[in-house]
Amino acid sequence: MCLLIDMSLGLSLSGGGSRAAAFHRGTVKALEELGLVDKLSVVSTISGGSVFGAAWMASRKRGEETGLFLEEMGRELGKGFIGRSIRPRAAKMLVPGLTRTNVLADTFDSVFFKGMKLGDIPDSPRLCMNVSVLNNGHLGKFTKGEFKCAGITPPEHPRSYSEPVKMEEYPLSLAATASAAYPGLLAPIYLKRGKGGIPKGWGRDGLKDHSRFALVDGGVLDNLGVQSLLSSKSGLSCWDIIVSDAGTREELWKPRNIVVKAFKSAWDTACAGVGVGIGWISIGDLLRVNKVMFNKEVRQMRHHLFDEQEKSWMMTAIDSGKADGALKEFVGRGRGSHGARERRKILFIKINQFWDSMIGHIPNWRLWELAARAGVKVGRYPDRGNTGEMEQFLAECGVDLAPAKDIFKRMGGDEAVRKANDVATGFSKLPGESIDILYSHALWQAKALYGIYWK
Known about the structure:
The chain is an alpha/beta fold.
């Protein structure tokens, strides 16, 4: 007998500073228009996505409409956050223990959070702000009134994987900013022992001797925010997942000659705020190595997500009796306790997405599903290199892409996509054109992908 369990919907909001927040505006607007916002179970966030997600949940707590929040966020992105953080609060950074990360948190609090604490955020959807805990290299998770990380456990449960620490009064601004504290640019936020922090005696594998825990950008370990939505250990796992990925295209890197390299490395060193004693001629190489490792982690997480979707498609084929015996045996071994479910739905909305590539990468299994649903007899699949032929096939299957394509064209088409890929990360102010392009870029994708993959 197969076990049926409730479906759940998760949304992940990736990192990418203000660029990410501008992109997520379009994603959330589309989800609202599609009627999916109220169906969300979990919102898992990273870095700039955490600032956006926490601000959104704070707005919902105040009873504000999503549309008004998105308009306000657009205005604030046009003002930027770094300049208005540093100038009026420069003296505060002279106080021992306070950094520009703290003053940035103050700005976020005055603009979005208004003194809200971790225990004040809404119960639903559940917000999970992911951070990287440098002490042990695991993801930490701020949720409503709690913090949780592998290895942080009470002394009475020494074998436990992790248990939540109650942190009802922890400032929401610090939790969101910790998730966005990119190493080298923003100092870590520290969770200390004692009142308001990690209780004394908590921690296994040596962590109980640590007096404080360094929290930095969650993107160091997962810049998409999907680990928490896939892991059964998180308590936040969801079956259907929407990803808003503000990562841009990967660029090739050409080693510079020694003179150019020296000047560029000196500049990178100054921007990173580190001393020349670490070997400043090599910092450009170190930054490139960091970028390569970051891109590899993101690629692996994307592939893992799509592997999970394809596995669920095979399970659905078995349950419907449309799979042969060998496939049934293979998938049956990997089913575990999942039981019979509908196919896993995944929408992957990303900045590095062009119209033709989106249409050309629809997998055969989904084309088969669409055709079967619409009663279309497939003599052959359409030519993936011919966008018009693919669009005609989708139209015959009942997929209306006209509204999404209209937004794509009005946005500026492929040229606008290239501009979106060139928008820098960080929390400096964004030009109005960039804010508008990023918003529309997410909006058309969400609507197109919903028609192709969701219904």
